[in-house]
Design a protein that fits this description.
The protein is α/β, with parallel strands linked by helices. The protein has one domain (about 5-240): Rossmann fold (3-Layer(aba) Sandwich), CATH 3.40.50.720. The protein has helices at about 20-30, 45-60, 75-85, 110-135, 150-155, 160-180, 200-205, 220-230, and strands at about 10-15, 35-40, 65, 95, 145-150, 190-195, 240. It starts with 11 loop residues before the first strand and ends in an 8-residue tail after the last strand. About 40% of the residues are buried.
């Protein structure tokens, strides 16, 4: 399918976990197409570097949102809303990409502090941001919310602990939102499983794996491009999974 890449010009897109990995790839590649990227991460140093690169090369209007998703609450979410309203007319898309693994461990030795941290960053923050930012998307002509899931969210797997549980929660949250918004809004919900990708999280989970044999974050971009496009508007499938043949339509 031929996708109109001009569709993203001047669109305002928020990407969480934008300082590295898939999030960084999205920030740069979407900026190439003229989108204004609102980059959210706790790593301000990395965000500054990406911001400077985008401003110099692509002349778009990016924004840095320094935020530790572990501490996100209603008040901090409202601060993000206020920043967006002060700098942009609205929001066209949210890509919930930020996620942490922290550790591989069986349940009996899983400490509660790590469990709570992972659930807050991977799941609760997606709920908080969606709750507060959806009203900013109502005037968009082609609004999208894209969640990021994992195969261990579809079926629990030993030692994946809170990460697996958080992704199962993301699956449910995306389905709930899709069902709630279907008849009252033009916001389209997608839940994307990128599968094995070269990221620091992947390296932590599979330390013996040769990263050269794993696809790069840039290899996912066609999927995001389609999900953000008008061509995906009539799709009945809200769960999208990476396939080497791009058989996702």
């Amino acid at each position: 399918m031929e996708i109109d890449k001009n569709n993203l010009n001047k669109k305002n897109i928020l990407v969480t976990g934008a300082s590295n990995g898939i999030g960084k790839s999205l920030a740069i590649n979407l900026s190439k197409l003229g989108a204004n990227i609102l980059m959210l991460s706790r790593n301000e140093v990395e965000l500054d570097s990406i911001y400077d690169e985008i401003k110099e090369k692509y002349k778009t209007d990016p924004c840095i949102l320094k935020c530790d998703l572990e501490n996100l609450d209603d008040s901090k979410s409202q601060e993000i809303v206020n920043i967006i309203l002060d700098n942009y007319k609205g929001l066209d898309a949210i890509i919930h990409n930020a996620s942490v693994l922290e550790k591989m461990s069986h349940i009996q030795s899983y400490d509660s502090k790590t469990w709570e941290k992972i659930l807050k960053i991977n799941l609760t923050s997606s709920f908080m941001l969606s709750k507060h930012l959806i009203p900013l998307m109502q005037s968009s002509s082609n609004p999208r919310i894209i969640f990021t899931t994992s195969s261990v969210g579809n079926k629990g797997k030993a030692f994946w602990g809170a990460y697996s549980v958080s992704k199962a929660g993301i699956n449910a949250l995306s389905e709930i939102l899709a069902d709630e918004l279907e008849s009252i809004s033009n916001i389209k919900i997608f839940n994307f499983n990128p599968k094995a990708t070269q990221t620091s999280m992947r390296a932590l989970a599979y330390p013996a794996e040769n990263p050269v044999l794993v696809k790069k974050p840039d290899d996912l971009f066609d999927y995001y491009l389609w999900m953000l496009s008008e061509e995906s508007s009539d799709s009945k499938n809200t769960y999208i999974e990476f396939d080497e043949n791009n058989a996702f339509i």
